[in-house]
Amino acid sequence: MKQIAILGSTGSIGQSTLSIIRKYPERFRVASLAAGRNTDAAFEQCVEWRPQVMSVATEELASSLASRLKAAGVTGIEVVHGTEGTVKVATLRCTDFVVSAIVGVAGLEATYAAVQAGKPVGLANKEAMVAAGEILTAAARAKNVPLLPIDSEHNAIHQCMRAGEKREIRRLWLTASGGPFRNLPLREFDNITVAQALKHPTWVMGRRITIDSATLLNKGLEIIEACRLFDLPPNAIKVTVHPQSTVHSLVEYIDGSILAQISVTDMRLPILYALSYPERVESDLTFDIASLGQLNFEPPDFERFPCLRLAYEAAEKGGAHPIALNAADEVAVEAFLDGKIPFTAIPRTIESVLQATPETHPATIAEVLALDREARQAAANEARRFAQHASTAR
Amino acid sequence: MKQIAILGSTGSIGQSTLSIIRKYPERFRVASLAAGRNTDAAFEQCVEWRPQVMSVATEELASSLASRLKAAGVTGIEVVHGTEGTVKVATLRCTDFVVSAIVGVAGLEATYAAVQAGKPVGLANKEAMVAAGEILTAAARAKNVPLLPIDSEHNAIHQCMRAGEKREIRRLWLTASGGPFRNLPLREFDNITVAQALKHPTWVMGRRITIDSATLLNKGLEIIEACRLFDLPPNAIKVTVHPQSTVHSLVEYIDGSILAQISVTDMRLPILYALSYPERVESDLTFDIASLGQLNFEPPDFERFPCLRLAYEAAEKGGAHPIALNAADEVAVEAFLDGKIPFTAIPRTIESVLQATPETHPATIAEVLALDREARQAAANEARRFAQHASTAR
Question: In this structure, is residue B87 part of a structural domain?
Fold first, then answer.
């Protein structure tokens, strides 16, 4: 029986993780949960799962949740809050496995604490690996704890890497759906609307990640994540555009063999894989090969998707640069979603911020967070500049 | 340094194996060779490779080769002949690895002898596994020697199986190019000419295997081979028609993940894999993912390709049935290539022979060979019947 802690239990990955735990009660049990501001969902999770500890965003939310639980006669759950609370959830002694699914850099400290406490971590929080990958992987190596990717691409690579040794890998191939603008001519990129950008062809996801899929910055973050997670240089990570999103990624070995992983597009599969690793567990997440139909692969267009190039550059420099890439993108996407800057100003904002980013390598999570704040500030200034420019142009 | 013995050194797989050994002189060396009737090629191989032992088909050919070598001043090579000679090549003490590439059941005794002598075997001889798979795998298990498949499909499966445990496999998917008649309407099958059947869309191969690819009997043999090699029941082996022959086969795990192997269509790759296993060795047999283009997968048509059904039935019954399937097919294909029977009489011949095949399980290679001879006789009779029928119909 594995005791699971979930950081980000009310989010999409958190809920999918709970659906897996619900399905395999003989294998997994909820140890503790960290939610955010959604105390209604947190309350319901407390009722259903009876975690040892439940963390929410603020002290106020925590005391309101605690009263509600008391009124409902639900006892024995310690309600905590804030970063300290999340860290507590991540490091509880009885926990065997931590699912890190708090979006953005917010989950960083708790994820680091889990690794330091020797807990195997399932990483659904891409930004953690992008911003603090060097620190996290060094800690994981020192503590000899596995970091298991919970996203379809890196999970696919993790599976394909089992067919050989790390030194036998020539390169990794991340598949990209190509997003909604795969076939849009470059000259029309300036006129992309928010509604157009939010229509992802194959996955239903949050707003930021959907825009990141449209700019391919999402794939850029995955390039950096792959470098850190699998300890490979950026030029060993390639991207291939595969609109069907059926092949989740590939590993090319030095002998010329390429291993690919194929499955349904359902996050419960990488979650189940991470929770049960090194075992595999029977599931009904079946993919029908007979219906595989047609698969296409084509090289990505670096001209229409400059975010890819920016990501490679940030990966190459390391240190503060991936942090700035991620932070600047989050700010720029926000500005785009608010209708303040055009789609093409997203990569431009990121590029400006990267150019001003110092060549430093943070040694602690606190330094990572400080660099993240600086980059956000710089990005906000840049985005304002592009917004003024856009409104002047109108 | 691995000392390699090659059974069938002048054939296509034998020559490809030698080209691999030529390329990696620091890793592999020729221990001994078994050729057949092509003593010109055998002579040249003796000159280039200086094997400890060279075996040819008959005593006459052996003495002629020995004289020729003596005249050329090539000394130190023991020239032997016949089954006994091939067995000697397969079991030489200094040999670390045996490539079994004699087509048909001819290589069976030597392959079995190699396993009995504790030599790891690279199996390019599909018929050996079909006719005597139960005996060969039992011996390999008893001696704890690996049997490594040297054909693109089973080699792909061997690679994909490394991503999990055997008990975690739900089923295997063998890819089939579908042959030249993939899209031919059933009513036109009676009029298929030899020339049409010899045109294989993706692989250049020998005549029998090309016809077997057109009837899909080849895939049927591979189903049986997979059952034996990977110790799985016939209903766990599926076929998917994949005209591009780029994905060489797939393994579906119980969690819903499917691993696929992709590479160039070049037999040197599975040969290199088998020779260097468990290591992988750098090669220039590179497949360009960017040029992967379009891949198609569709279910096979059991009505137009009855050989598939016959193979599943033979696999299910085991024992004498796979032997009869293989033997009857070889005879029927020969009759088709000689213009004696129509294309559609190939499966009919096999079916008649299978219906008359006894439900026995041979315990020795000698019994396998006896059953093989009986099935050939029965198939010759059946083919004659179809030939008369065809000439009467004209």
Answer: yes
Is A289 in contact with B164 (Cβ distance < 8 A)?
no
Interface check A296 vs B, CB under 8 A: yes
Are β-strands A97-100 and A2-7 bridged in parallel, bridged antiparallel, or unpaired?
parallel
Residues in chain A closer than 8 A to B280 (CB atoms)? 164-165, 168, 253-255, 257
Asked if residue A270 belongs to a domain, the reply is: no
Give Cα B335 to chain centroid, integer Å.
21
CA distance B368 to B148: 22
For residue A143, with 0-12 CB atoms within 10 Å meaning exposed, 13-18 middle and 19 or more buried, which class applies?
A: middle
Domain of A143 in residue numbering reads as 2-149
pLDDT of residue A394: 55
Query: Please, how many CA atoms are within 13 Å of residue B219, restricted to the half-sphere of its CB?
Result: 29
Put simply, the answer to whether B263 touches A283 (Cβ < 8 Å) is: no
Cβ-proximal residues to B391 (8 Å cutoff; 6+ apart), any chain? none
- Which residues of chain A does B257 touch, with a Cβ-Cβ cutoff of 8 Å? 159, 261-263, 269, 273, 280
User: B277 at the A interface (CB within 8 A)?
Assistant: no
> Apex CA B191: angle with CA B185 and CA B195, to 5°?
105
- Provide, as residue numbers in chain B, all residues whose Cβ is less than 8 Å from the Cβ of A247: 260
Q: What pLDDT is stored for residue A38 in this prediction?
A: 96
Of residues A309, A313, A307, A312, the one with CA closest to residue A330: A307
Q: How confident is the model at residue B103 (pLDDT cuts 50, 70, 90)?
A: confident
Contact yes or no for B260 and A282 at CB 8 A? no
- A154 located within any domain: no
Q: Flag if B256 and A285 touch (Cβ within 8 Å).
A: yes
ipTM above 0.90, yes or no: yes
Tell me the C-alpha distance between A330 and A333, whole Å: 5
- Tell me the count of A-B CB pairs closer than 8 A: 155
* Residue B16, burial from CB neighbour count under 10 angstroms (0-12, 13-18, 19+): buried
* Whole-number Å distance between alpha carbons of A304 and A26: 49
Tokens read off for B255: 């969690």
Provide the chain A residues 221-250 that lie in CB contact (below 8 A) with chain B. Answer: 238, 240, 247, 250
Predicted confidence band at B200 (pLDDT cuts at 50, 70, 90)? low
Q: Using CB atoms within 10 A of its CB, is residue B108 exposed (0-12), middle (13-18) or buried (19+)?
A: buried
Burial class (CB in 10 A: 0-12, 13-18, 19+), B138: middle
- Residue A74 sits in a domain whose CATH number is 3.40.50.720
**Out of B240, B257, B273, whose CB is closest to A263?**
B257
Pair of tokens at residue B62? 């052996």
Find out whether B88 and B98 touch, Cβ atoms under 8 Å.
no
| pTM confidence score | 0.95
Total structural domains in chain A?
1
Residue A262 lies in a domain: no
